Amino acid sequence: MIAKVIVDVASKSVDYKFDYIIPEQLESVIQPGVRVIVPFGPRTIQGYVMEVTAEPDAQLDVSKLKKIIEVKDIQPELTSELIALSEWMGSTHVIKRISMLEVMLPSAIKAKYKKAFKMKDDIEVPSALLQKFDKHGYYYYKDAQKNNDIQLLMKLLKEDIVEEKTILTQNITKKTKRAVRVIEGYHPDEVLAKLEKVIKQYDLYAYLSEEQHKTIFLTDIEDMGFSKSSLDGLIKKGYVEKYDAVVERDPFKDRVFEQESKQQLTEDQFKAYEAIKAKIVSQEQETFLLHGVTGSGKTEVYLQTIEDVLSQGKQAMMLVPEIALTPQMVLRFKRRFGDDVAVLHSGLSNGERYDEWQKIRNGRARVSVGARSSVFAPFKNLGLIIIDEEHESTYKQEDYPRYHAREIAQWRSEYHHCPVILGSATPCLESYARAEKGVYHLLSLPNRVNQQALPEIDIVDMREELSEGNRSMFSKDLREAIQLRLDRQEQVVLFLNRRGYASFMLCRDCGYVPQCPNCDISLTYHKTTDLLKCHYCGYQETPPNQCPNCESEHIRQVGTGTQKVEELLQQEFEDARIIRMDVDTTSKKGAHEKLLTEFEKGNGDILLGTQMIAKGLDYPNITLVGVLNADTMLNLPDFRASERTYQLLTQVAGRAGRHEKAGQVIIQTYNPDHYSILDVQKNDYLTFYRQEMEYRKLGKYPPYYYLINFTISHKEMKKVMEASQHVHKILLQHLTEKALVLGPSPAALARINNEFRFQILVKYKSEPGLLQAIQFLDDYYHEKFIKEKLALKIDIDPQMMM
């Protein structure tokens, strides 16, 4: 028997299936989807079995094939569906298959490789080094570096006294807890007869033998009132033993979720629910675009359709755009479905994520809630996939391997013959255009579920504030509105899409601005650490007391970040309790949920935050939302800037007045006449959609054209320019005249981490030769990168143009 294996080497040159002989003793356990350990050149590495066949390919010499060394799994980690998906992504998106397989799996499953020096048999190592080798004869490279032994070891390597090895280790660590069990081989009645005179030992043994089908922990024994001496006595007599029982890491083990019954649906909700239910029952693939205003009850539609899926014995997947939204969504799902819910997101530890993933794989959880990568959850019988806030750009992975969760969801829904729901108050233009064409089925929820009016939205022209002498970042209207809410003991949400203390530092005499030495961008000032930081490469430096350019002492922070706003708010409203939510305050595990819980409990008056507070918050006491600067995204050099501004402002405005108390939204802007801001005020998605579509048509942008962005980068400008011209030439050779090839030109961020960046943008409708061109360029520049570190990034359907 032959196994076709994808090996754990992220190189284009080995991105195909290798044939390995399956040893006879492993034939019964090796199947597609299991991990195996195989010899590969001089190394021993991990691989994934993609196929099992009776014979190798005809052109291969069987005598030269190597044998599989070990199988790591009893049950496959990869389903046949995920294997097929990895093949499809590899062929259509120019992604190495090992990279695709590894993004599908929790990091705990991935192999780790450690370089080490190994003692050779029968050859003596100098005594000074001997004690540094472990019991298996290895001295790890990392430890040798730390101990300054590398030079000596390299000398021994040349003298053939030691050899270099790569050691394969696993990330998986099982959590264990001390437990007690009866020792097999004794008949309980016989043991109990011998213990009749030792009453406490008798009672304990009787309990353990009756409950031996369960795991009994040491702590359970103590809680039951049995003494340590009774247990020790039974262990000494050889009737029971202690052992390490594997326990599941449950991130919600200390939480109690009150059962929640389903709510009465409104007429609009019921129509949407019935349309989706029909496809669930008939097991047909269809994509529904659920367009509902903020507070229209989209989540309740999700929950009730999932109930129908579970009643059919199937499974459901729920995606949210970022982990800040997960706590509230998890709460609702856990209240409705209890332990049937598994949670998958980057805020969990590796062990917790692995255990949640295993719950899905083993069929113990039939519903998943998670961020982007949870789209690969190992369900075998999906009945529904839901993508909430489907317009969010975070559903696209920007790093390699690049994929869009929406596209993966579509593929999986076709595989399982099940519907997909794309939910949003502000659908992306591409999705709404598909709904208008009939590619998607449009469902509308035009009203809030409790008949509560949408909040009143006021636009403040900050130019007028400035002309009236108000240089503060709080307009007169916003200041008064905040004070009114504080007096009423109501809550306020303030939104600013900029973290840090100040945008940059500026010398008021010569105009000098401290720049990152590695990137073409100014440094951001962070007050808590008193450092200037680059948010792209991580560079940081101490802020200067005087200008390095002209030696003036008039160098100050300019612009405002969340840290600065927090300070100004505290000065303006001394008694206000402020909770700040941004990347800096939510970096620790569980910080998102902790801060939101504090605010929900009423332990904060003002919630100040970046994009992570714009969506999902549903608290009855929020009656005011303030947008401090609506122009932050509007001025970005990206064709989606207006769309993202409209979406973000609509989402954050939707946090106000969702329950009985009326809501107000104040948007501060220097562009009060911009259509994206005016349409937010009118809550008029269709008018915005029509106007933005006109601009897209004129500019030949999606949804009228598809895009591919090619970014070439290197430390030498000359090499970048030469490679850019070469990429441009290859594209022109493969594409028709209907395609538009723009560039090469410097990227909006022309240098990041000391690498110059040029871009070429291709706009097209249908290009049969495009995939061939992409594959050629990917192969060619893979070799170039190995030899010269000249990188080509190919981004299909780019979400970020910077």
From TrEMBL:
**CDD domains according to UniProt:** DEXHc_priA, SF2_C_priA
Q: What family does the database annotate?
A: Belongs to the helicase family. PriA subfamily.
Q: Which residues form the Helicase C-terminal domain?
A: 542-696
Residues that bind Zn(2+) 1: 507, 510, 547, 550
Give an example GO cellular component term for this record. primosome complex
What is the name of the protein in this document? Answer: Replication restart protein PriA
One annotated GO molecular function: zinc ion binding
Q: Which residues form the Helicase ATP-binding domain?
A: 279-445
Please give the organism: Staphylococcus aureus
Residue runs in coiled coils: none
Q: Does the keyword Hydrolase apply?
A: yes
UniProt keywords (A-Z) are:
ATP-binding, DNA replication, DNA-binding, Helicase, Hydrolase, Isomerase, Metal-binding, Nucleotide-binding, Primosome, Zinc
Does the keyword Oxidoreductase belong to this entry? no
What functional role does this protein have? Initiates the restart of stalled replication forks, which reloads the replicative helicase on sites other than the origin of replication. Recognizes and binds to abandoned replication forks and remodels them to uncover a helicase loading site. Promotes assembly of the primosome at these replication forks.
